[in-house]
Write a structure and sequence with these properties.
262 residues; mainly beta; Immunoglobulin-like; 6-stranded antiparallel β-sheet; 12% helix; elongated
Length: 262
């Protein structure tokens, strides 16, 4: 390591080109990588496996970022404490945020460690994981393929909420006639900030879901009202109808019924 202007230069005895697009053949050809894995006590001096080689590069990059004051705050590790070959991407949305997770694994248990405790929800599985700073993951085994080895076997999208959302306020008319427009307003009260997606589903008589009326709207947290419209058809069946609103980040739902008259 040497000074370079206001920064520092780090000299390597191997190339990093396989870090973003790793495969076994590329990793095995990297000069000096066997020595590097031995230096970090990650493998044998003379022969490093591809997994050890990629772990060595990950460790090196983490050390470089730490030198620059950019220490990794969210990590994914196997049950034995080793780094999990994966990608984590965080998307900040003011108060709330999203965490994308892609893993390449032959199966087993893993754990994602967050930078603090959040109300965590697995969006794809539609379930709450509670208030925690750790996410336990059961990884599925992938199929062995020739050539590039790192293929996705596990994909998840988590919402990280600093405070728990308790309620949605949905306002709609109590009665309308066939062919009318149903004007509704949704408000999300509380101190949480940011924008979320709220998905609306409509159910006709006998609670039959009418998918052609489904719609999604961007709604601000913090009490900003959002207006929407459902354009009913002239041949819709009269009776008791229901609008269901679901916040996609928190999973909180609410509904409102209205009467449809001929």
């Amino acid at each position: 390591m040497d000074s370079l202007g206001k920064g520092k230069a780090i000299y390597l005895n191997f190339k990093m080109r396989a870090y973003l697009k790793p495969n076994y053949r590329e990793l095995k050809r990297l000069e000096g990588l066997s020595y590097f894995t031995h230096y970090l006590k990650l493998g044998n001096t003379e022969k490093a496996t591809a997994d050890q080689a990629l772990t060595a590069q990950h460790t090196l990059l983490a050390a470089v970022l730490k030198q620059a004051g950019k220490e990794v705050k969210i990590t994914a590790r196997n049950a034995d404490g080793t780094f999990l070959i994966s990608k984590l991407a965080r998307y900040r949305n003011e108060g709330a945020s999203l965490l994308g997770f892609l893993a390449c694994s032959n199966g087993g248990d893993a754990e994602i460690t967050l930078d603090r405790e959040y109300h965590v929800r697995d969006i794809l599985a539609d379930r709450s994981l509670g208030y925690t700073d750790k996410i336990s993951v059961r990884l599925k085994a992938g199929q062995d393929l020739p050539g590039p080895i790192y293929f996705v076997t596990h994909a998840r999208l988590y919402s990280l909420m600093p405070v728990k959302l308790d309620d949605l306020v949905l306002e709609a008319p109590e009665a309308v006639r066939v062919g009318d427009d149903v004007q509704f307003t949704l408000t999300i009260p509380g101190k949480l900030t940011g924008t979320t997606t709220v998905y609306f589903t409509v159910y006709g008589p006998d609670d039959r879901r009418l998918r052609h009326y489904d719609q999604a709207l961007f709604v601000r947290y913090g009490g900003t009202p959002k207006k929407g419209t459902i354009k009913l058809a002239l041949n819709d069946e009269p009776g008791s109808w229901k609008i269901v609103a679901r916040d996609m980040l928190s999973g909180v739902r609410t509904h409102r019924r209205f009467s449809l008259a001929p």
